[in-house]
Amino acid sequence: MQKLTIKGKKKLSGTISISGSKNASLPILASTILFKKVNLKNIPMVKDVFTMIELLRFIGLKVSINSKNNSLKISNSNIKINPIAPYKLVKTMRAGVLVLGPLLSKFKKAKVSLPGGCAIGTRPVDLHLFALKKLGAKIKIKEGYIYATATDGLKGEKIKFPKISVGATENAIIAATHATGETVLLNCAIEPEIKDLIDFLKKSGCDIKCNGRKITINSKKKFKNSKHTIMFDRIEAGTYLIASALIGKKMTLTNLKPKIISNEIKTLKKMGVKIKVQKNKIVISESSNIKNQVLRTSPYPGFPTDLQAQMMVLMTKANGVSKIQENIFENRFMHVPELKRMGAKIEIKNNIAIINGPSKLSGAEVMATDLRASVSLVLAGLVAENRTTINRIYHLDRGYENLEKKFVKCKANIKRI
Ligand code: UD1
Fold first, then answer.
1. I need a labelling partner for 29 at 20 to 30 A (CA). Which of 40, 202, 206, 331 fits?
2. Residue to mutate (ligand 1; options 28, 125, 165; most atoms within 8 A of CB)
3. Does 22-229 match 4-18+232-416 at the fold level?
């Protein structure tokens, strides 16, 4: 099994180009089931994307990958569709459940494995099923699978989500594009990746309007072949911003839209990080006096749960007591025991982490538990004294494209063994 070893305390300097967004790629890829021909650019070549491609191929789509220029060509004409998402693919990536909406709305039936548990919480799919049932689907759960049918096709409906969910909003939008009549979705997630999905669907001929947390979809009979460039990965950008704040001398992040991560930039500036924002890039200068901060994770435009673990590492270096309240997932402090083994002073009280800074971190052998927790250990390793070894880095490969190459280019001492 591969590991990462990091020799810490090496100041970073250089330029990092931000990759395309994993979380925008996955729903857009699932939605390609609905169309004949699609060309996608700026796709990150990460494990979760390959798993989704494997799933699309299992269903019967043709996908050709050009990993040199991060593009995909997908075609879906004259083929026999297999409307099934098997357990072996969905268990490694929950986003597999996103094929349920498009399969059901286009082929009127689907059999999709339940994703099961996950390190960061129970992560149910009840909201996905709630929306699809409202659109007229008949759903049964049997032997770990969701069996869904819509014999007469899906029908537009007014649906108010009882709780904000990114995946359920995406599944419902995609399904509604091929339902008859008008669908009005209320209390939707409005993450930038959902906007990117909607932009792609509109280019493919769908009729979608957004007004705050209300999204209206009207049925269309004709669709177009489309080309789309995936948005930048805002979580990757946030991760490198925090790395730069921790141990950067002079770092530049390119290929991003700073406006989309303005909340994160504002928070870091409040903590004393020296950030200069330009049109499509951000320059971070050495920041010595990091201030403590109180943070709450919440749906966009709030602070993202996917950057919580990385922020916690920065807080171990801040002067004074910082707090993070995790409001999205119930078990997302799995990185804390590992950070404590490296010398961090962190206490957990229910869904609040209290971080006593500044503390000296020292290298240790640690274990990655999920995608964002693993990257927080990389950040801790970069700023710690001596050597850190991170086990189970397959979690990292699910979502970070060329992570160690990008850091090595900025003079970090980091190796995969
Ligand atoms: C997506 C992101 C993930 C991010 C999360 C929150 C992708 C591929 N993944 O995950 O990186 O951390 O948004 O920003 O885009 N919930 C239910 N019932 C459901 C669905 C969700 O109760 O049917 C709950 C979840 O357990 C969680 C909350 O709703 O507590 C938010 O989850 P959701 O927004 O659905 O996250 P994902 O779409 O799975």
1. 331
2. 165
3. yes
